[in-house]
Design goal:
The protein is of the alpha+beta class and 307 residues long. The protein contains 8 helices and 4 strands, in the order βαααααααββαβ. It folds into 2 domains: 201 residues, Alpha-lytic protease prodomain-like (Up-down Bundle); 86 residues, Alpha-Beta Plaits (2-Layer Sandwich). The chain starts with a strand and ends in a 12-residue tail after the last strand. The N terminus is likely disordered.
Length: 307
């Protein structure tokens, strides 16, 4: 016998609509891209070109983020029971993968320029780097209020922060070249930009892949969940206990519970379901759970294939 949670909107009410923020940041980022490409051509700076390459991936990533934000608002259907909620995870994973590739390419080219530094014009670097930083700060301000809403927006905010740090590195390198004439500082700044890109994107990629692999959501201890379910006086065993995460803020728990046979006849199975799911919601922040009850006399016929 199966008792499932009463209907939910699958987290739709908790999903912040970040489309306006993302579109505004996309427009600002496009402007920064144009400025930095022009600046790289004028100054000959790899640091500016590396940052422009980074910004180009941001434009692609933000475009995907906007698309994911639109798709994630579409309602669930019989064919897609969770709607397109996982689109934000796919977009975040794609952004991280592309950004990681760009970071590696920047590091390789920076090493090459460190060995054979070309002539760079520091004045142009300063001007275009400052304009790029200003654009980054505007984009950060737009996204700041919604950066924790979901993985998609967090990925976008992370990329803008990396851009800002890259612009700072460009300005520092330009100042060093202007004051000392040390041309290799442009390559050093490029190495810094690459070093800023790679570790953060690896973490974001790992988090996105964990969701796609349906790993247990971070912060949810299944051992604690099992003990809480077993603490109910009528529950004898818990098996086929699974926890996954459809999208940001939408963990799901399913489990089979072996209970007293009398629970199926004395009329309190429904109240026990309400109590257990209320505890999962209150104590573990799991709003959506599906619990299947099995009579103790039936347990020996249940083929257990999962923990």
């Amino acid at each position: 016998m199966t008792e499932a949670h009463r209907g939910h909107d699958h987290g739709g009410a908790a999903l912040a609509d970040q489309r306006g923020r993302l579109v505004a940041v996309l427009a600002v980022t496009l402007a920064v891209l144009v400025v930095e490409v022009v600046g790289a051509l004028v100054s000959g700076s790899l640091a500016l070109l590396a940052d422009a390459g980074h910004v180009l991936t941001d434009v692609a990533g933000l475009g995907m983020a906007v698309l994911a934000a639109v798709l994630s608002r579409r309602p669930a259907t019989d064919a897609r029971t969770w709607g397109f909620r996982r689109a934000e995870v796919l977009a975040a994973a794609a952004q991280a993968a592309v950004l990681l590739a760009v970071g590696v390419l920047v590091l390789v080219e920076a090493v090459h320029r460190l060995l054979q530094p070309p002539e760079v014009t520091p004045a142009a670097m300063l001007v275009f780097g400052a304009v790029g930083l200003a654009g980054n700060l505007v984009a950060m301000a737009v996204l700041a209020g919604g950066r924790s809403a979901n993985l998609n927006t967090r990925a976008a905010f992370l990329e803008v922060v990396n851009d800002a740090l890259g612009s700072v590195a460009v300005l520092v390198a330009a100042a060093v070249i202007a004051l000392s004439g040390w041309q290799r500082s442009d390559a050093v700044a490029s190495l810094v930009i690459g070093a800023l890109i790679v570790p953060r994107t690896l973490r974001l990629l790992a988090e996105s892949v964990n969701v796609l692999l349906e790993s247990t959501p971070r912060g949810l201890d299944l051992g604690d969940v099992r003990r809480r379910l077993l603490s109910h006086p009528h529950v004898h065993d818990v098996h086929d206990l699974h926890a996954t995460q459809v999208a940001t803020g939408l963990p799901v728990v399913t489990a089979h519970l072996v209970v007293d046979d009398s629970c199926f006849y004395d009329g309190h199975l429904g109240s026990m379901l309400d109590e257990l799911q209320r505890e999962l919601d209150t104590d573990f922040d799991v709003e959506h759970s599906t619990l299947q009850f099995e009579a103790l006399s039936h347990a020996e016929h249940e083929h257990e294939t999962h923990p």
